Amino acid sequence: MEITIEESGAKVNIAVCSFESAFKLKSVIEKELLKSNINLMELDFEDISKIINLLMVLDSSSEVFEAMFECLKKSSYNGVGIKKETFDTPEKWGDLYEVFFYCLKVNVFPFYKNLLSKFKKLGRETPAENQEPTLVTV
Description:
By secondary structure, the chain is of the alpha+beta class. The protein is built from five helices and four strands. Strands 1-2-3-4 form a four-stranded antiparallel beta sheet, with no helix packed on it. The termini are far apart. Residues 133-138 have low confidence and may be disordered.
């Protein structure tokens, strides 16, 4: 995915990383969210304080940070491979979170795509009137 960061004009190419790296990033994010008792199903994305809290939880995790850069190994910033050193100058610090966002979009969101569509379908389905609920055992 190629993007141009509006504020800096940087050209960024976010590449799909390996399954192992993407799965690790997904897993460390989930672990951090569970540790902090953040329930994404109850998160009000209109409430900026809750969004900031979510970002702080993820941002303060060295595991998430390391996994993010592992996923960015094949990506580039202005034609140069992305490493931690890419953001060494304060002028580039503002681009970091946008790069992280697109890394998540390319490498983590696909894990949930089919599952979320299934949940949406379940939410629309309603039992027929007068139909008794059935117990399903596995």
